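cron nightly-structures :: item 1 of 1
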Amino acid sequence: MNIPIVYEDDWLLVVDKPSGLLVIPTPKKESRTLTSILNTHMKEKHESLRLHPCHRLDRETSGLVIYAKGKSIQKKMMDAFRFQRVKKTYIAFAQGVLLQDKGRIRRAIERMPSVTSYQVVERRKNFTIVRVWPLTGRTNQIRIHFKSIGHPLVGESRFAFRRDYELKFKRVCLHAAVLEFIHPVTGKEIKISAELSRDLKDFLKRPPA
């Protein structure tokens, strides 16, 4: 198994998901998902427990995913996500140059209030590196919100037309970089981070278009 494990204790396992993997199957019932790979690995180690995902990242997004070693721990962590007690920090590359150093996007998604906060890390010739905090947990929230302000993420193909932008990439440039939460059993403050995936690092090394 080549899925990096970045944190583990008796109750939780946190991995750095590569882009291209679903966390769980869609209605198409894909057999190879992050969850199936991890549980196959546990079987090969002769571990009796099963790992249960506490939240999801979409297929294209890389970065941190928390798994619970048991259903009761999974429920506690899912409640923490539901009640916004987990602070999530993403790194994203947005098309064009964002003029404001920081901002907050408030735009409903499927009629539900949705808020995303961001801060510019660096401006390049035709894209901007931003640190992003989704303050609500709507599906595809970051991707939808940046499209709504005219700066879709680099590589976006679902919520924007690739042909409209000169800058191209094979997948959406979004990485779940940091998770902060109170441990559901020990009560300790936990902060876990994962550096940018290799493909995003390589993208940053590309000469300007």
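cron nightly-structures :: done
The chain has a mean pLDDT of 95.
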